[in-house]
Structure formats: structure tokens, C-alpha cells
Input
Amino acid sequence: MIERFVDVPDGYLYSRTCGEGPDVVLLHAGAADLRMWDSTVAWLASLARVTMFDFRDMGLSSRATKPYREVDDIAAVLDAAGVQRAVLVGVSDGARRALAFACAFPDRVARVVAAGATFGEFPDPTPDESAARQEMDEHIARLGRLLADQGLGAYAAADIGKWGAALGPDERRKMVGLQLSNAYWIELPESLGAELDTPVKTRFTELTVPVDVVIGGRDFASTRLWAGRLAEQAPDANLIEVPEGDHFPMLSAPAEFERILRQAVG
Output
């Protein structure tokens, strides 16, 4: 395994590369870091060269002090690892970033595997989307009360309890622990990271790379509806439902997620 700190404007990014074969880049969820991919890398590095990194404000990467573009950080990590073109695999906020990168730099992306991609509020929502967003807003409001009244431990347990509804005990502890380790990001009033000038959630039709849209049967309704939008609007998209999975299918449905990735990597 090669560890490196990649210099970027006003900061640095911690990354790891291991294995041999076609390039695969893993992008973690928000309020987590590259350690969430440990069980995936354990088998994936036997058939691919795997690169992953901690986003700014998370893991071992630096704290953001000035505005920056998330897609430029991804490009910097790829450049430092000597990756010209890769399969991008993202979960949650990492899936959003992967799709934005594919929109900005399509020549550098062979495929995107977007698991539980999250994009926030829906533009021009349907009644079902409005109801699903209300459920999400209520969850966020509850988390805010827990954080204020009982602290980060209660916040993380409640949050992972909803997003990771299908996780086993050890996997749940892992994700709760990662949230606690990345408490700095949770308590940020606002991220300084920007995606694209026009967010990718309004540009699915512009995606020119193949996209595997992976969604867990036990994920939030809003995430499932976003998956439907993405699969319907992206020109070359394949919707893959994992009935027993949740927001983190690499942990809640590892055998099915491995099957999906093996097929994506080829």
C-alpha cells in the first residue's frame, strides 16, 4: 500500500493506493473517511489498483480554510496516483461527487457506481418527493435536538440507526465510530467545498459515462426517489436494487455489492 499526502490549494488530502489492475477510485460518505472501505478493499485490491482519499475536513486531510472545488480535489488525487482514467465508486455524498466529476471530466471516467447518492432538496418536486423530503427534514431536525441535548454520541447512534437500518452490530459500531471521528465536519456551520457552478443534480442528462445506480431497499425514501431520477435521466444508466441493503450496501449487503463491483470493473 502506498500512502501519500496530496498538496492542493490551501491544504492537503490523505490518500492510499493498493493493488494492481484497472484503476478504481473509492469515494466515501459524508461524516466518514476512507476507512469505511476497508472490507471492500480487502478483496477489490486483488483485481484492481484501488485509490481512495479523505475529503477535506474529514479523516487525515486538512481543514478547509478557503472555498474550493470538490472535483478539483478528486483530479489532484488521480494525478498524484498516476490515474488517467478510472471506475469511480461513491456512496452517499461520495456518489454525488463522483457524478459531478464525471460531468466535469468525462474523459477520465470509465464508469460510475453510485450507491445511495444524495443530493439534498429536489428541484420541482413531485408530491412523493416532497413527502420524502419532509421525512428527511424531520430526521435532520431530530438530530439537531439530540446534538444539543445529549451530544455527539446520541447524534451518531440515531443517524446511523436510520441510514444503516440493515447493518449488523459490528458494522453499525464502525459507522458510528467514523461519525464520531469526523465530528469536526458534523459541527461545521457550512462546508467550503463547491461541486459545480450548476449542480450535477440538475445535469443528469449531460452524463456521458455509464452509471450503475445502486439503491438499498432499506434506504430513505428520498434517496430511493433520487435514484429513480438519476436512472431515468442519465443516458446510460442501470438501476440496481439491493432489497436487503441500506444506505451502505458495501457493509449491509457485501456479497451483492461485491458482485456489482466485479461486474463494473470487468
Remarks:
- The CA atoms of residues 6 and 77 lie 6 Å apart.
- The longest strand covers residues 11-18.
- The longest helix spans residues 127-150.
- The mean pLDDT is 97.
